[in-house]
Amino acid sequence: MNVERLWSVRERAGVHAALGEPARLAIVDRLVLGDLSPTEIGRELGLSSNLLAHHLKLLEQAGVVERSRSEGDHRRTYVHLRPQSLTGLAPMGLRTAPRVVFVCTHNSARSQLAAALWARLSPVPATSAGTHPAARVHPRAVAIARNRGLSLARARTSRVDKVLNDGDLVVAVCDNAHEELGPQADDRLHWSVPDPARVDTDDAFEQAFTEIADRIDRLAPAVHLPGDSDD
Questions:
Q1: Is 216's pLDDT higher than 90?
Q2: Could you tell me where in the chain the CATH 1.10.10.10 domains are found?
Q3: What are the DSSP E strand ranges found in the chain?
Q4: In whole angstroms, how far apart are CA 173 and each of 24, 71, 189?
Q5: In terms of pLDDT, which residue wins out, 185 or 230?
Q6: Distance from C-alpha of 159 to C-alpha of 162, rounded to nearest angstrom
Q7: How far is residue 83's CA from residue 200's CA, in Å, rounded to a whole number?
Q8: Is the pLDDT of residue 187 over 50?
Q9: Which terminus of the chain faces fewer neighbouring Cβ atoms within 10 Å, N or C?
């Protein structure tokens, strides 16, 4: 057995071992569709801070989850699944929504790319908005969309309070927007995607696009229009 294959088997075994405990599997279930802070995870699952820290440490060691510091409130951290760590994991907790609204601070890159990617995969309508919208969509976002067969040529920025309707599933694709929108709600998900405009390089926008695409692939099969059935 070659070394690469041996490590692959060991890593997979570590993931299975980490998920063999009900509390850790429950943590992963809640992170499949969106990111949460440790406090939010502990509150949802009724876990003490010490026990939660233990479970998160084991999941991190197995390469299943990682943490990032909030770009908004720097005192906060968010836990999210590592890309490809659970390839093929079925989304838990199917949702119904008449529309999905992707929200970031400026509505100039991440939320615009997310809405465009969503439209390619799901029949559920989608749009985007910002808590403090910029004057225009970022040129690098337009360029990366074009390179991936998407078009943001007609995209315009909008304020979130002018866009949201009752029943919308809101996906905050940045920490600042998530924190501005207030406490986590059942009709909102959070993706802690770093702002590529802060770095303002092609690589930063490529990385953001790849992360958003991975998350869209996970979420799209789990969201259905009201009244739709898989039967």
A1: yes
A2: 3-81
A3: 65-69, 77-81, 95-96, 100-104, 126-130, 169-172, 188-190, 223-224
A4: 25, 12, 8
A5: 185
A6: 5
A7: 22
A8: yes
A9: C
Q: For residue 36, give the DSSP letter.
A: B
150 close to 120: Cβ distance less than 8 angstroms: yes
Q: Do 24 and 58 touch, CB atoms closer than 8 A?
A: yes
For 3-81, CATH gives 1.10.10.10
Residues 6+ apart with CB under 8 A from 152: 112, 113, 116, 137, 141, 142, 145, 146
Where does the pLDDT of residue 46 fall: very low under 50, low under 70, confident under 90, or very high at 90 and above? very high
Q: Which CATH class is domain 95-224?
A: alpha beta
Residue 136 three-state SS: coil
pLDDT higher than threshold 90 for residue 121: yes
The rounded mean pLDDT for the chain is 89
For 58, the enclosing helix (H) or strand (E) is helix 49-61
- For the whole prediction, is pTM greater than 0.90? no
Q: Output the six-digit token pair for 34.
A: 């969106």
Residue 134's CB is within 10 A of a number of other CB atoms, namely 14
